[in-house]
Amino acid sequence: MYYAATRCHIESAKLLLNHNLEIELQNYLYNELNTYAKEVVELFITHAVKLRHFSKDINSKIVTRNTDFIQNSPNLNKLAQRCEQEIQKMKNIKIGSSDKTIHSMYLLTNNTNVLARYANNLEVLDWYKNSKQEFPLYGPEVARTIENGTNRKNYLKEYVKKKSL
Predict the structure, then answer these.
(1) Which domain of life is it from (predicted)?
(2) What is the DSSP letter of 107?
(3) Which of the four pLDDT bands, split at 50, 70 and 90, describes residue 14?
């Protein structure tokens, strides 16, 4: 992770973080905040805030240390507040008449078959169109997850079509 971060290999860092890697922000950002590209700092903070929301152990040392570290920096705290606002907005966007939200379906780790089930839902498609502009921090990640669900749905359709021949 350190190599990817210091050399601004964003895609490599995202790949590592997508596997729910817990990072301790202080190890990466302490005294080096100005040496990292803005994208890297943003990636680490969005990941830390997301982990705080989805961690089974909200009181874990890493979550607590990251929260404290963010709160002690005005710039990081401002970014974390923007993350919180986006997450809250996603929690408010319902998918159909179910209890599912954009937040629960696409920011949480879900089975691709579950994602495929909602791939053509009008609320999801409508949200997808504007996701990157309206949600600059988490929109690209959620859009990728929606694309994975859509791809899975298309794959299943093709499979069924070939089997029925």
Answers:
(1) Bacteria
(2) I
(3) confident
What pLDDT is stored for residue 35 in this prediction? 62
pTM of the model: 0.80
Tokens of 75: 């710039």
Answer whether residue 161 shows pLDDT above 80. yes
Q: Is 133 left (phi over 0), alpha (psi -120 to 50) or beta?
A: alpha
